[in-house]
Each structure stands twice: as structure tokens, then as C-alpha cells.
Design goal:
The complex is a heterodimer. By secondary structure, chain A is of the alpha+beta class. Chain A contains 3 helices and 6 strands. Chain B is globular and about 70 Å long. Classes of the chains: A alpha+beta, B mainly alpha. At the A-B interface, strand 3 and strand 4 of A face helix 14 and strand 4 of B.
Chain lengths: 122, 438
């Protein structure tokens, strides 16, 4: 099992989610974050005060997957999140020691396997 | 404006009329920032400033064009359009026109020109570049709005035909609705249209805008009596009653269709009711205004639903709200006009010819506005691209076109200081406590 953390552009989020769901990767957590990855800063001006926005809005996806799904998920994210410009984000993959599904107490691979494949979220 | 251009008189202005028209003019101007809130709430957060700026900038683009030339094309004596007698405000002074100073009549009309072109922006948001919009506000006001204004209120052919338009059902709303249709077709849909849900980012802003619009609309309709008289009271009351009925019918339709009454729906209903009663305000009885408001809900409600299933990206439904609402109101004015209340009998009082006159005014305005708007936008596109590039649309027009964010947290904002050379050449500040002046 691996934990995939992907930082992507907010404007690509819809495409990324669609690609992940198509690839049967349906369990994930999403948070709005700010960060900096070397992209050109947006310059904004308010009543003569000019500022560079060093931190850019990004979206962080956290996805726990079983080993066969690691490359599937990465391919899906790459295909949907890439624009080719600096600031497209990163994907981090780290090993997972243990996963527990709270509802059932299932652990590890059982816990990261969707209840019913491609079940509609909520 | 119910009455054709009144003769200039040496008589002094009527003080009550003058006072009311000063207030009414300010009320109508408030509708433009009100519209900015209404439209701003309906778009995504990354485009709210651009959307609101489209309405605000119409004050400069449309308003200046109106002051410099549009007023003359609409209200100077002329033929198909007005003449050039009042170009650059020539001959617009404190002399009395009707019972108010000519200058006040000009100012009141100017606020109408501004809101009309601002209404069109609802079909163009989230993708039109800002420069072309500025050009559009000026050119459209001169080429499309001023001629229609002349036909209906400036003593032109629709006025002579006897078409009724109390406060701008055809001049403002049918005109803006048709322009929105043509403009949405020329510009094409937003990049994300059909690919993802494009939802309102702040419904409270929409409701705030609705309140400001309704408040301002009392000046719009009751001010169109151009006097503090019974006609103004009739129009004022119609402006209160019609949206009530529209709102009630709309909420019932919402409840019947989906089981729930929506806030965006309620806001839309109020605007539709106001639009529909605009041409009728001084011509129908109070009961007529209620009937008109109730009936007006139907075409716009189902028009909205139908539009959402087409490829037409009239983003904020200007066609359904102002176009369909305006056409419905203009035609029902011909049906419900009451000789006892407004001086002209309609279909229900045995004069079906009034309905035909209304239909002629609607048809002429639709045709002129569709063709004129198409030409104006094609002409602007000849000089500059109209659409913001996909990359700009996806990052948001606020940051990309205006260099501002509506809801930025301020985190990570680094002050951009003047470059070092500039700082070195700037006079050094005296240490605290040593400055003695002189």
C-alpha cells in the first residue's frame, strides 16, 4: 500500500477527479493549500500597493491505494493535471504501514478497496 | 417618457417634479452597482471582480458615449435617428423641458443608457476581454441603444405609431435581451461550459443585488412619469405589485417542479417581474400589474430551463430574464392597458390594434438589436480578439486581467519595492525628531 499525495492546480481539479474516477480510484481526501513551486508570481495591485503573490493556491489530494493501483493513479493524475507550464504541481508516493477502515475495522488492502467498484460518491 | 418630447417652455420648472426627478435619477444610477452585485454573485469566485467591473465600467464607456453624442442621437430633433443638435451637450441647459430642467432630463436618461448596456454583460462574463468590453459599451450605446431610444421616446416612428413603453420594456429590456443573444452567439461559450458545473459563488451577493435593483427600479419606473404626479404613483405601485406576483408564481413553479424553493430562483423572479412591468407601469391598473407579474413568470421560468439544455452560453440568462420578460411585458401592456388608469385602452378594453402596435415595437427592436449588436462585435473583433485565452479563463480573469483577487487571504503577498537605483536617488528621510520644516 502506498499513500499518494498530489499537489495540483485548482483549475485542473475537475479533470483530475474525472480521470481518477475513470481509473476506479474513488477514495480520496482533498484540501485547499497554498504553496510555491518556482512559478512566476502573479502581480496584483491595490490602490497603488503592488504585491507579488509568492504563495499560489493549490489543491492537495491524498489517496491511499493498494500497490497495483499506484501507477494507475499516477498516470491518471499526470494525464489530467499537466499543462506543461511551471506550477503544475508534484506527486509524492510514500509507503503506508497500516490502514484501517473505521466503519468495519477492516485493515490494509481490504480497507483501501472500494466498497462497490465505481460506486457513486455519497 | 410616456409622453413624447415635450415642448420647451419658458415657464420655470415645477419644484416638486424637479425634486422627485433628482431623486429618481440617483435611484436609477444605483441599479448599475446593484446589477454588478447581482451578476457578480452568479459567477465563479475567480471572475467576480471582472464581472462587477463590466457593469461599473459601463458607467464610463456607455455613460460618456451617451453624454458626448448618444443623447443627441436619441433626443435631438431628427428623422430615423435624432440629429446632432445636442452633440457634446450643446443646447442642454437649465431651460425647462416639460416641467423639469432639460439638464435633469438628460441626466435621468443617461442613467438608463448606462444600465442597458451593463445588462448585456451577463451574456459575456467569464470570457470576454476587458478592452473589447469598454469599446462595446461605447459603440453599442451609440449604434444600437440611441436609435431605439429615439424611435420610442425621442418622437421617432414607434412613438408616432402609438406603441406604449412607459419606462423601457422595449428600449431597455428587449433591446438588452436581443443584444445578449447576438453577443453570446458571436463570442461562443466559456471554455469550461459543458465540461464542469459553473455555479454561482455567492448567492447572498445575488440577493443583495436584487434588493438594490428593486429599490432603484422605483426611480426607473415611477421616475419615467417625469413628474411627481398620479402617474408616478401608479407606476410606483405597479413596481411594487408585479414582482410580488411573479415571485409567488415562480416559487410555486419551483416547488412543484423540484419540491424546493430556491433563492437564486426568487432573485430571478423579482427581476423578471420588474422587467415585465416596466413597459406597463403607467398604463395598467394595479390589478392589471398583479396579473401581468403573475403571467410574466411563465415564459422566463421555462425559458431558463430550456436555455440550460442548449449550447447557447448566455451565461447569466439575460435572454430569458430581460429578453423574454421584456417581450412578455411589452405585449401584455397592449392587452392590459387601461383607458381609465393610463389613458390608452388595450385588447381587454376592445382595442386589439394596441397589441399589434406593441408587437411591431418588439419586432423592430429585436431585429435592430440582433443585427446591430452582431455588427458592433464583429467590428471590434476586427481590431482585437474578443475572447480571453483558455489559460486566462482557467486561472481566472480577476488576477489575469485586473491584477486583483476578490477573496485573497493576503498570505504570501510580498511587497514589490521600487528598484534599488530609484531608492538611492530618492531623498533620504530625516531621522525622527530632527525634522524642523522649512
Amino acid at each position: 500500500m502506498k499513500l499518494i499525495t498530489a499537489i495540483v492546480r485548482p483549475e485542473r481539479l475537475n479533470d483530475v477527479l474525472e480521470a481518477l474516477f475513470r481509473a476506479q480510484v474513488t477514495g480520496l481526501t482533498l484540501s485547499r493549500v497554498q504553496g510555491h513551486g518556482g512559478e512566476t508570481e502573479a502581480v496584483t495591485t491595490y490602490r497603488g500597493v503592488t504585491v507579488k503573490m509568492e504563495l499560489v493556491e493549490k489543491v492537495r489530494l491524498e489517496i491511499g491505494v493498494s500497490d497495483p493501483f499506484v501507477d494507475v493513479a499516477i498516470r491518471a493524475i499526470l494525464s489530467a493535471a499537466r499543462t506543461g507550464e511551471v506550477g503544475d504541481g508534484k506527486i509524492f508516493v510514500v509507503p503506508l504501514e497500516r490502514v484501517v477502515r473505521i466503519r468495519t475495522g477492516e485493515t490494509d488492502v481490504d480497507a483501501v478497496t472500494p466498497v462497490a467498484p465505481a460506486a457513486a460518491p455519497a | 417618457m410616456a409622453v413624447n418630447p415635450l415642448p420647451f417652455a419658458a415657464a420655470p420648472s415645477h419644484p416638486a417634479d424637479l425634486a422627485w426627478m433628482l431623486v429618481a435619477t440617483a435611484l436609477v444610477l444605483l441599479m448599475t452597482p446593484g446589477l454588478a452585485f447581482f451578476y457578480g454573485g452568479l459567477v465563479r469566485a475567480k471572475n467576480v471582480l471582472n464581472t462587477m467591473m463590466m457593469s461599473l465600467a459601463a458607467v464610463a464607456g456607455g455613460g460618456l458615449a451617451w453624454a458626448l453624442a448618444g443623447y443627441s442621437l436619441a433626443f435631438a430633433p431628427g428623422g430615423f435617428v435624432g440629429g446632432l443638435d445636442h452633440l457634446l451637450l450643446a443646447g442642454v441647459g437649465l431651460e425647462t423641458r416639460g416641467t423639469i430642467p432639460h439638464l435633469l432630463f438628460f441626466a435621468f436618461q443617461g442613467t438608463f443608457a448606462v444600465i442597458t448596456v451593463a445588462l448585456v454583460s451577463g451574456a459575456l462574463v467569464e470570457r470576454l476581454r476587458f478592452g473589447p468590453w469598454l469599446a462595446f459599451t461605447a459603440l453599442w450605446t451609440l449604434a444600437v441603444y440611441a436609435p431605439v431610444c429615439h424611435w420610442v421616446w425621442g418622437g421617432g416612428w414607434l412613438a408616432r405609431l402609438g406603441a406604449l413603453d412607459f419606462a423601457g420594456g422595449t428600449v431597455v429590456h428587449v433591446n438588452a435581451g436581443a443584444a445578449a443573444l447576438a453577443a453570446a452567439l458571436v463570442l461562443g461559450p466559456r471554455r469550461d461550459r459543458g465540461r464542469q458545473a459553473l455555479l454561482p459563488h455567492s448567492v447572498p451577493l445575488v440577493l443583495l443585488g436584487t434588493g438594490l435593483l428593486w429599490f432603484g427600479w422605483f426611480g426607473f419606473n415611477a421616475g419615467s412619469a417625469l413628474a411627481a404626479d398620479g402617474k408616478a404613483v401608479l407606476a410606483f405601485t405597479a413596481t411594487l405589485l408585479a414582482p410580488m406576483a411573479t415571485l409567488a408564481v415562480w416559487m410555486a413553479l419551483d416547488a412543484l417542479r423540484g419540491g424546493r424553493v430556491t433563492a437564486v430562483g426568487a432573485a430571478t423572479a423579482i427581476v423578471v417581474g420588474l422587467v415585465a412591468v416596466t413597459p406597463a407601469a403607467g398604463f395598467v391598473s394595479p390589478r392589471g400589474a398583479l396579473a401581468l407579474g403573475a403571467l410574466a413568470a411563465l415564459p422566463s421560468y421555462f425559458g431558463l430551463l430550456a436555455r440550460a439544455r442548449t449550447r447557447l452560453d448566455d451565461s447569466l440568462d439575460v435572454v430569458a430574464a430581460h429578453g423574454l420578460g421584456g417581450v412578455t411585458g411589452a405585449l401584455l401592456t397592449g392587452v392590459l392597458a387601461s383607458a381609465a388608469w393610463g389613458g390608452t385602452p388595450g385588447l381587454l378594453e376592445g382595442h386589439p390594434d394596441q397589441l399589434l402596435r406593441q408587437a411591431a415595437a418588439v419586432g423592430a427592436t429585436l431585429a435592430w438589436s440582433l443585427a446591430g449588436t452582431w455588427l458592433v462585435l464583429r467590428a471590434i473583433a476586427w481590431f482585437a480578439p474578443l475572447r480571453a485565452a483558455d489559460r486566462l479563463q482557467s486561472r481566472g480573469l480577476d488576477v489575469e486581467l485586473h491584477g486583483e483577487e476578490a477573496y485573497g487571504s493576503g498570505e504570501g503577498a510580498i511587497l514589490v519595492l521600487p528598484d534599488p537605483e530609484e531608492r538611492a536617488s530618492a531623498p533620504a528621510l530625516a531621522p525622527l525628531g530632527t525634522a524642523t520644516g522649512a
